[in-house]
Amino acid sequence: MSRLSRTQGHRPAPRGAPPTSALFVRIPAEQAQRLDRAAFELKLPKQRLITGLLERYVDPDSADSLDALSGAQEGARRVTVETFGGDPLAVGHHHFRPREAEVLTAVEAGELLQVDVEVIERLAQDGELPGRRLGGHWRFARAALLSWLGAPGATAPGARDRSEPAAGER
Prior knowledge:
Elements: H1 3-7, E1 10-11, E2 20-21, H2 29-42, H3 46-57, H4 63-70, E3 78-81, E4 90-93, E5 103-105, H5 106-113, H6 117-125, E6 132-134, E7 137-141, H7 142-150
Antiparallel strand pairs: 1-2, 3-4, 5-7, 6-7
Helix pairs in contact: 5-6
């Protein structure tokens, strides 16, 4: 072995194995613990775990890979999809919008209409708000609430619909 290869941390590999190089880095304690735990759970040496991660996610010849590593797209969420057909990873961006529930509880109906749950329950009990009592709990169809809200004259008791003149204003 030459003096140059010894100073660079190289050592001869066993027959048939690729040559190795020493890598000494300091990482935050939390990430070191995560690495230890992952190696333990996977029953792999840390060297093999790190090698696998590098092979899978680091390609210095790919601009996309380097952008992903450098965090060049701040604020964007990266979505990685792994497929089972041996195909490579598909990496891209997507903005997820949670699916809105079709059936709401009284609390959720209050959040939707921006009023207290007590107002929702009182209006439903009085038959002014479209809803059903199921198992002792109020349930509301989102579409029915929004339709009710947009209908003329959909006001809470004691509130005046501004589109109609008050009794003394005619």
